[in-house]
Amino acid sequence: MNIKISDVANLPSRFGNFKVKAFKEGQKEHLVIYAKELDEIPVVRVHSECLTGDAIGSLKCDCRDQLEYALSLIGEKGGMVIYLRQEGRNIGLLNKINAYALQDKGLDTVEANHQLGFAADERTYDIVTYILHHFGIKKIKLLTNNPDKINSICDVEIVERLPIIMKSNKYNEDYLDVKRDAMGHLL
Ligand SMILES: Nc1nc2c(ncn2[C@@H]2O[C@H](COP(=O)(O)OP(=O)(O)OP(=O)(O)O)[C@@H](O)[C@H]2O)c(=O)[nH]1
Ligand SMILES: [Zn+2]
């Protein structure tokens, strides 16, 4: 892996005073946000980019609520958010919007991905191991409902899984049902 790593910078935010470090993997620039004192077994949230949710406040998913929950938690109690630039479960923004257009016609999230020629989830997590090793972290408490994330993060011991379940709304109910029923999320 050819990874470029930035210096550490301070990032005061509405969720707390953090440190940030960027990791450039090919064209993808990931951001690691962490509280100043990291525990030996820190709480870690691996968040996948969702421009429509994270920045625009889309109600079609639970991404922004999860991101804000995770940042508030690490702001209060310490830990790390690894913000991965894997937009749309790594099919990219343009394809995700095409998937949304198919969802407007009645397909669910998984069916829409398949119709576009993608797997339901195209993400990989090798960079997570790289980042955690970079910080000397060997054990984590992982904030997730996604068993695929638990199984895909290698060479780091996940001593505990912490759920991250957000209140649903009328626009994301079906999306959350599909995550549970078709993708095996622990919801
Ligand atoms: N292709 C596609 N991606 C989506 C859709 N809705 C949200 N996403 C992307 O899904 C990613 C978030 O992944 P999720 O599967 O919702 O949740 P997760 O982060 O894997 O699981 P948790 O750790 O439990 O939150 C982000 O990259 C979103 O952009 C959709 O309808 N289609
Ligand atoms: Zn989202």
Automatic annotation (TrEMBL):
The active site is at 121 (proton acceptor), 123 (nucleophile). The keyword Magnesium does not apply. GO terms for molecular function: GTP binding; GTP cyclohydrolase II activity; zinc ion binding. Transmembrane segments: none annotated. SUPFAM superfamilies: RibA-like. It is an enzyme of class 3 (hydrolase). InterPro entries: GTP_cyclohydro_II, RibA, RibA-like_sf. GO terms for biological process: riboflavin biosynthetic process. It catalyses: GTP + 4 H2O = 2,5-diamino-6-hydroxy-4-(5-phosphoribosylamino)-pyrimidine + formate + 2 phosphate + 3 H(+). GO terms for cellular component: cytosol. Its cofactor is Zn(2+). Gene3D superfamilies: GTP cyclohydrolase II. Binds 1 zinc ion per subunit. It holds the Pfam family GTP_cyclohydro2. Zn(2+) binds at residues 50, 61, 63. Its EC number is 3.5.4.25. Pathway: Cofactor biosynthesis; riboflavin biosynthesis; 5-amino-6-(D-ribitylamino)uracil from GTP: step 1/4. The keyword Acetylation does not apply. Keywords: GTP-binding, Hydrolase, Metal-binding, Nucleotide-binding, Riboflavin biosynthesis, Zinc. Residues 9-163 form the GTP cyclohydrolase II domain. GTP binds at residues 45-49, 66, 87-89, 109, 144, 149. Catalyzes the conversion of GTP to 2,5-diamino-6-ribosylamino-4(3H)-pyrimidinone 5'-phosphate (DARP), formate and pyrophosphate. Belongs to the GTP cyclohydrolase II family. This is GTP cyclohydrolase-2. It comes from Sulfurimonas paralvinellae.
